[in-house]
Design the sequence.
């Protein structure tokens, strides 16, 4: 059993971040593009799941990513993922879409929570500049928000720090 990294992307940025995270975690299996999966049942064979999701449909109440994740949310919510740990990283633009920064993370978080998964990888909001985000839960981000548009110079350090956090939350990564 292992931890898998899954992503969906429109511009390739989420895939790039998934690859960089994979290198930092030292995993054996490469990240998988959700668009290439025939079904989600393989998620049940893992100890943990790390998900990458962009926010394209800013301000939307549902289907916020504009990617393959949107069509799989209900299926994820109906799965039995009790005992599985799930972490999410999201991409957004904190200066142009400052009122909807990385909102898609919360939608993914909600459906994985509904499936019984244990959510990990929460991140303190203090080092981020934005007005609002649906991805704030209990004052923290429900995953790692990244801004490859306006703050790409901060991504490497944020990823490195989050990878270390994940190693403590996913013993399988050590």
Sequence:
């Amino acid at each position: 059993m292992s931890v898998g990294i899954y992503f969906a992307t429109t511009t390739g940025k989420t895939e790039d971040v998934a690859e960089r995270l994979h290198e930092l975690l030292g995993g054996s299996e490469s990240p998988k593009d959700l668009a290439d999966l025939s079904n989600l049942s393989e998620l049940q064979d893992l100890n943990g799941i790390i998900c990458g999701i962009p926010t394209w449909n800013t301000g939307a109440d549902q289907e916020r990513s504009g990617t393959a994740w949107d069509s799989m949310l209900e299926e994820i919510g109906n799965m039995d993922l009790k005992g599985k740990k799930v972490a999410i990283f999201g991409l957004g633009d904190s200066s142009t879409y400052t009122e909807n920064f990385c909102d898609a993370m919360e939608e993914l978080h909600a459906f994985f929570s509904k499936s019984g998964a244990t959510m990990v990888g929460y991140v303190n909001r203090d080092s981020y500049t934005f007005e609002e985000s649906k991805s704030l839960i209990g004052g923290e981000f429900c995953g790692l928000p990244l801004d490859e548009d306006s703050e790409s110079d901060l991504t490497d350090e944020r990823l490195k720090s989050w990878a270390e956090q994940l190693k403590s939350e996913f013993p399988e990564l050590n």
